[in-house]
Amino acid sequence: MQRYKCILSYDGSGFSGYQVQPNKRTVQLELETVLAKMHKGLPVKVSGSGRTDAGVHAKGQVIHFDSALPIPEPKWEMALNSMLPSDISVLSVEKVNESFHARFDAIGKEYRYLIHLSSKRDPFQRNFSYQYPYFLSVDDMKQASKYFLGTHDFTSFCASKTEVIDKVRTIETIEFVVDGDLLVIRFVGNGFLYNMVRILVGTLLEVGAGNRSPSDMAEIIAGQDRRLSGKTAPAHGLYLWEVFYNKTT
Fold first, then answer.
1. pLDDT in tens, 92-110
2. Which of 43, 59, 228, 231 is such that its CA lies 20 to 30 A from the CA of 27?
């Protein structure tokens, strides 16, 4: 058996998230269905770097699977893309050591959140960025984001239903890029909790709208209470952009 690492992108609009769920269309199910066909009906387990929710997109999701089929790496990419639906694209396939794990070997991730700053609805953006037609102070959002940098307990920015006990994470970078009427917020860290990026964005939007002060972020972090932070920003503005691994992995 050979282990393969794949990087894939997908449009999350038509999926109920990445992970297999009963009677739901998911990215993992589509991948495992195609791999089972290639293996004459035998099940092939796919492991991802992490889950994405319904509507969340990916530019660089990473998965791994094991196979005994004697297919060269470039042919794997071609074969998978020829059978997968058009809203999933396999960008690369490479052989890796059998100890590699897409989730447990990841040392960091980058997420990006896209906000459409316009009062006019764009039908070509409706599934791929969050339209925000109101006043927004990006400068205030930048000031607020500085409180999130470094290592903190992010309980206040995690969905209350999560089963994760350790909520300490490190955010290395939060960057704001304005390109025309599109605001891109880039988050890089060693890991992110369930809904963490979307709650961070929702809170930053409240700061940008003038409903919170940037200095309020210190109290929210210290309070370790989900009720203190802002609303969860919509899923369709979020992208899992890249997953980082050690170069030797």
1. 999 999 999 999 999 999 9
2. 231
